[in-house]
Amino acid sequence: METKVYYIDEKNDEIIKEASKVIRSGGTVVFPTETVYGLGANALDYKACLKIFKAKGRPQDNPLIVHVADFDISNYVKNVPEKAQILMENFWPGPLTIIMPKSDIIPDEVTAGLKNVALRMPLNKIARKLITYSNLPIAAPSANISGRPSPTSIEHCIEDLNGKVDMIIGGERCEVGLESTVVDTSDGNVTILRPGAVTKEMMEEVVGNVFIDSAVLDRLKEGEKPRAPGMKYRHYAPKSPLIIIQGDLKSSVSYINEKIDENNVKGLKTGVLATDETFKEYKGELKISVGSRKKPGIIAANLFDCLREFDKIDVDIIYAEGFNEDGINLAIMNRLKKAAGYNIVKV
Ligand code: AMP
Ligand code: MG
Q1: 98-107, 198-207, 228-237, 280-289: which has the minimum mean pLDDT?
Q2: Measured from the CA of 193, which atom of ligand 1 is nearest?
Q3: Is residue 212 located within the same domain as residue 311?
Q4: Over 90: is that where the pLDDT of 293 sits?
Q5: pTM: predicted TM-score of the whole model, two decimal places
Q6: How far is 303 from 274, CA to CA, in rounded Å?
Q7: Residue located nearest, by CA, to atom 21 of ligand 1
Q8: Could you tell me if residue 173 is inside a domain?
Q9: 231 within ligand 1 shell (Cβ under 6 A)
Q10: Among 184, 46, 19, which Cα is nearest to 105's?
């Protein structure tokens, strides 16, 4: 199929209205959000939503997040749990997805047969205008081929989805660069199923105790069923194997440099995902800095782009420095661990 691509900003109402017509007629539109680019369709039309799964190659047991532009979500949920209400008031619009009991209007295809629906109100102006002009909730997962790093620029989306969707709009780079925080509130508690820029610490200030689902920190055990079905898939992965080196920075640098020498002898090209603090200390040329450790927000915004860069420079193996797991670093490490298939070496 032919994909229309428009480089626009939020002032280009004409194109955003054209995109909203595509959504209303059951088509698919890639659009920017502050987290990552989304691949959207009418959330109330199961046939339109099936096009999302097809374009991405997404397994149908992985539910979609529904995006709204209005605080009145009563049509889409059975009830709004008390803590969900507090979270909405404090963090919407923004990078927080809240899972609540779904109403019958939300098709089973959207929630992969689950009784709950995941809702988010994005902050990005193009995203909000698109939802408002469509006058519909928009189901939208990240606009990448399933398994690849999520797209943080329009070029990433074109790379993955040109010819597979009706329209791609945007141009700006995503400010946050990691997918939204996902919390389940359906049992009255707040449990993080996927960490993001809205951190545990930030939510605890307004709702008290926040739990972290075990799938956030570690690989699932054989046969264990995750609360967020998406967590069981290998995600965010560059094409070459990635290994995380966890330990103090000095030991990490010398371990990785030893590996670079060893791999050279074997004729293997070694990539390094470094930070500004250590970049110069690594041997060889195949290294990328993800940013300064003093600015974790920037590291979050750069991470997926760096993982995609390694695909372009043709390396056989990649070593990445680890991070602690406070604040937004929990989200950074969660994505890195998944990209590495939980392959971590402690030094
Ligand atoms: P993506 O849209 O690719 O950013 O992924 C959305 C994430 O939210 C996946 O990990 C899904 O499994 C999770 N998710 C979406 N809807 C639900 C739901 N109703 N219940 C539990 N997890 C959900
Ligand atoms: Mg995704």
Answers
A1: 228-237
A2: 22
A3: no
A4: yes
A5: 0.95
A6: 11
A7: 228
A8: yes
A9: yes
A10: 46
- Helix (H, G, I), strand (E, B), or coil: what is residue 293? coil
Q: What is the span of the domain harbouring residue 171?
A: 4-217
Same domain as 151, residue 59: yes
Q: Number of folded domains in the chain?
A: 2
For residue 270, give the CATH number of its domain.
3.40.50.11030
Whether 190 and 253 map to the same domain: the answer is: no
Closest atom of ligand 1 relative to the 180 alpha carbon: 4
CB 195 within 8 A of CB 176: no
Q: Mind listing the pLDDT tens digit for each residue in 299-324?
A: 999 999 999 999 898 899 999 999 99
Distance between CA atoms of 14 and 253, rounded to whole angstroms? 52
Helices and strands (H and E) in the chain: how many:
11, 16
- Predicted confidence (pLDDT) at residue 33 exceeds the cutoff of 90: yes
Considering the domain boundaries, does residue 231 fall inside one?
no
List of E strands, 71-228: 96-101, 116-120, 138-139, 167-170, 181-184, 191-194, 211-212
The β-bridge relationship of strands 4-7 and 167-170 is parallel
pLDDT at 235 over 90: no
**Residue nearest atom 1 of ligand 1, based on CA coordinates:** 141
Residue nearest to atom 2 of ligand 1 (CA): 141
Is the same domain home to 183 and 330?
no
Percent of the chain with pLDDT over 70: 100
CATH number at residue 56: 3.90.870.10
Tokens (6 digits) for 86: 């507090």
Is residue 38 in some structural domain?
Answer: yes
d(CA 71, CA 80): 11
* Separation of CA 334 and ligand 2 centre (Å): 13
Give the pLDDT score at 339. Answer: 92
